[in-house]
Design a protein that fits this description.
Four Helix Bundle (Hemerythrin (Met), subunit A), alpha+beta, 4 domains, 59% helix, 716 residues, 11% strand
Length: 716
Amino acid sequence: MQLRGIKRLRYGSSLGLDFVMRPPVNSTLGYGLVLAGLAFAAFAAVVGLVTGLTRRENALPWVQRAIYGFAASMILSNVVMVKALLEHDFSVKYVSLVGSKATPTIFTIVSLWSALEGSILFWGAIMGGYLIAFTWTYRNEHGRYMQLSLGVMAAVATFFAFLIAGPANPWGHIPNPASDGPGPNPLLQNHALMIIHPPMLYLGYVGMTVPFGIAAGALLRGELGDAWLVPLRKWTLVPWLFLSIGIILGSWWAYAVLGWGGYWAWDPVENASFMPWLTATAFMHSTMVLERKKSLKLWTIALALGSFVLTIIGTFMTRSGVFNSVHAFTQSDIGPTFLIFIAIVLVFSVLLLTVRGHLLIAESHLETVWSREGSILVNNLVFVALTFTVLLGTLFPLVTEALQDKKISVGEPYFNTMALPLGLLTLFLMGVGPMLPWGKADPKVLKQQAYIPGGLGLATLVPVFFWRYAVWEPFGTTTKSLGAFLAHMTSGDWMALATFGVAVFVTVVTLREMFLPAQQRMVETKESLFTALVVSASRARRRFGGYVVHLGIVAIIVAIAASSAYKVAAERTVKVGDSLKVGQYTIRFDGLANGREPHRDWVAANLTVIGADGSEYKHVGADAPRMNYYERSNDPIGSPLVQEMVWRDIYVSLRTYDPKAQTATFNAWVFPLVGWIWYAIPLLVLGTLIALWPQRKTIAVVKADAPAAAAAPGTP
């Protein structure tokens, strides 16, 4: 047996294993980089906070260098882990848990965030990316605005680096590794959405560290001027966008993969991402009042701090194992550590608001609710009430079980009853706010502005109602008369109808506010509509971008209302050649098919979808609803058929099948407008990019032949 850097030991064929003993290069290098990142983060936190509080601004370069060191260490550690995964180095603990030679390369890379330890390591890399981007962007800013903020961010980074180095260490070395591993969680390699959904969500979660650091720095400093406010607003908008995309992609994944005929179930982990999105949205609206009226300073800072606290609570929900969810990771040992960190962050935030909050003195006060700033405050209160409603419903079962050892569940009825009216009120305020001026509104002017949007909103109810009764409803129920139909309508039907009316009202107001400046330019300068719109939008980018985002939110809310209230469902067991009917569509079962891929086997039900006009759409093999069988999973993972159309989706899920009897059981739905939820992503991205796009700096030029009288007094 020769030793040439690698010692290979072959065991008997009965074991079927080929053990390779290698020096733990990947483990040693990866863990060493984590320790280096921990040291850099701790140094930046201590030096940044101490010198910031003592106002020794000459230490800022050292803090910046330590931030760069942390970011480089964490990013390189992730690179080493990806290398170990691609090399199938099963001597690395994490690779032995999620690696497999049969897993396709793309999912091998994706497995970096498919389990607890790897996701925390990936979290560290994203944290490093944010911190290095923020530090580099403001590298020339004055120290008093940076040291405290960077110190707080580095303190958060220190916690996560400690987590990676200790309780969630993925770099453990296995002396006698197996020749293959189980592969990543089957749910995470069952659809391409898992390639992008978790990174988007992590970019949203981790990014909230930056506004938290800025807000904490402002409180520690006792001031909140433009030097704090501008980066605070921008660096909240960035993670807000990623969080929005992550939430939507997560609902799309649940819809396209799990096969249960839905996209949102008020799951604890879904709620964990929704709550900081709500408070961050409230924060961004509040900054407008702070910037324009110099009020709501403490409230705005509290929202920034609260958004970060909720992201940490959401991370705890996802990774501690205390909640059972398809989105959550398994039981782990990091729960107590996370609870301690949550307690520290809560105490730190409350103490800051209590001890330093009085220094953020409002320069004006709200005079009336009937103003732009008043509507924003009401909007904020509704967002906070909705956040509290979701938080209560999410945590109440956990608290009850801990105190009374009694398991209870809080499901969709509670959330729908409590949250949907608040959501409808929020939608209404999206239309009212833009109509109101800053300061006190003139009731006559307000009524004139509300006539057309309100009238169109009410007028929309009539065609929607009769479309529901005369066109769509007969496919789902057997009601024959208007009276029977009205008796059949549920509270959800009425809520959806109200949502459509309010949505039209908001859309008309939003479009009017977007095009009004362009219309004025067309009159004054005789420009074309396109030119006037581009110029007016470029001069008020935040305003125009915000309205584009509003249109995306309206599309999402309308899609949720339509797909929830007006869906049509059917369930049936059929033989080959037989059909089931769902709405106006007939679905014919054409037989079973099966196949094999490197990482899974599958059984599919070939279908033909027949429309009311007789058109046929065949779905066979991988394009048909199927069951996927993974070695790691005892139960098959279903993949439904989703035939997407602009106005509706046909959704068929294979529940069971019998090859001998040639029968299969299907659940089928028709979901109107459901795709608009995902189609809204480009609007959110476009609006956010417009709002973030920097304004051109205008430089005043003094002419050489300017008269001497223009010089300031005393100028030679």
